[in-house]
Specification:
By secondary structure, the chain is mainly β. 13% of the residues lie in helices and 43% in strands. The chain has a single domain, classed as Thrombin, subunit H. The chain has two helices and seven strands; from the N terminus they run αβββββββα.
Length: 115
């Protein structure tokens, strides 16, 4: 990304971004296994994602992801519906379409806790 592009992008944002490096998962209709990505920065209104290379996406391209999808961040146990706003190679800027939801903690049986 050129410096002029970065300055232009920053001037269009009204929500301050925070740099992060969390693993994420992208879900959309028609797939059974989520696609991996990294959340590189996040704000109250959206995020910048970097696609991960894997056997289904060897080039780490963002072009195969539809415009609307669900982003899950397992570390934070959160999920949010997203809309892709821009794409540049492996990177994609997304807008959050609703509130970020906290997912329930995984169920652990009483027997597993006693060990």
């Amino acid at each position: 990304m050129a410096i002029a592009d970065a300055v232009d992008d920053a001037s269009r944002r009204w929500a301050k971004r925070k740099a992060v490096s969390n693993g994420g998962q992208i879900l959309f209709d028609g797939i059974t296994t989520p696609y991996s990505c990294f959340v590189r920065d996040v704000s109250s209104t959206g995020a910048r994602l970097e696609m991960s290379k894997n056997k289904y996406n060897p080039d780490a391209a963002s072009g195969f992801v539809p415009t609307y999808f669900t982003l899950i961040i397992p570390l934070d146990r959160t999920r949010v519906e997203c809309q892709s706003m821009w794409r540049r190679g492996a990177f994609m800027g997304v807008r959050f379409l609703g509130a970020v939801e906290v997912m329930p903690a995984p169920f652990r049986s009483i027997m597993a806790r006693k060990k």
